[in-house]
Amino acid sequence: MGLALELFDEVSAVVTSGVGTIVVEGEGAGELALDDSHLVIATMHKTFAAMNIAAPIVGLHCVNAIPQARGLGSSSAAIVAGALLARGLVVDGDQLLSDQDLLQFVVDLEGHPDNVAPCLLGGLVLSWGNPVHSLNRQIHESIKPTVFISAFNVKTEHARAILPDHIWHHDAAMNSARAALLMDALTRDPSNLFDATVDYLHQEQRRPAMPASVELMDRLRLAGVPATISGAGPSVLALAVSAEHETAIAQIASASPDFSALALPVSPAGAAIISG
Question: What is the pTM of this model?
Fold first, then answer.
């Protein structure tokens, strides 16, 4: 399950006969690779290959707004951007790689659908199975997300590696019930959102890797705000459903110097190609 928010990287590509250049502005500038290992370019090459098209030389310009390694889906956004750009540069690309084929392709590249599916489709997305199936829903209009972006990053690989190989049956059963409740709370009855955002399998286990994030989540929940670690962390997602929640979020944000609070509406449409 994933939720697309209005925080976008803007990525443009042009076919060139000269040397392909990569320009990165914003998040990741001066840090990301500027060669064929750049995730957008690497994904474009794989997408061209999937369409049986020889990869052209491409100039790439990225204006990134999604912070890297913060649990906000930056790598998924790069994969979706690369796949969409490559398909968009090919005549009849949407026939060579249909929307469903594109979804399956980016899921296979990422290894799981929880980030790439909402990035591509927008809204609240529930995905399952292989081949992948997805349901797209819009969340209840009263829910207002705020992301607390951590000043520190935690690599997703590390956040996943510290999770235990085995879990208690009790915890699995409790998480299954909360997941079912979460779908209803997000789309129909937000009054249950606080209970629905309890997690038994991921968040407390990651406290040693991101203690400030879990402590911030605890403070939000102590104030009655539905809050979770965003993705693999270390950012925190708060979901306000009342004026009291919004006040609490603002107060806690002002007392959390290691986090930047950013109110972000849900993105109903996800990624899009704009020709120009």
Answer: 0.93
| End-to-end Cα spacing for the chain | 33
Would you place residue 159 in the very low, low, confident or very high pLDDT band (cuts 50, 70, 90)? confident
pLDDT in tens, 23-50: 999 999 999 999 999 999 999 999 999 9
Alpha-helical runs (H) found in 3-121: 39-50, 74-88, 93-96, 99-110, 116-121
Over the stretch 218-229, which tens digit does the pLDDT of each residue have?
999 999 999 999
Name the residue ranges covered by the structural domains of the chain.
2-137, 144-263
Q: Tell me which CATH code domain 2-137 carries.
A: 3.30.230.10
**Which sign, positive or negative, has the C-alpha torsion 205, 210, 215, 220?**
negative
Rounded CA separation 227/221 (Å): 6
Phi, psi of 60 (to 5 degrees): -125, 135
CATH number of 144-263: 3.30.70.890
Contact 36, 42 (CB under 8 A): yes
User: Do the beta carbons of residue 126 and residue 133 sit within 8 Å?
Assistant: no
Residue 198 has pLDDT above 70, yes or no: yes
Task: Strands of the chain (E only): list them.
Answer: 2-3, 10-15, 22-26, 58-64, 124-128, 133-137, 144-150, 227-229, 236-240, 259-263
Look at residue 276 in the predicted model and tell me its pLDDT.
66
Q: Name the token pair of 230.
A: 């965003």
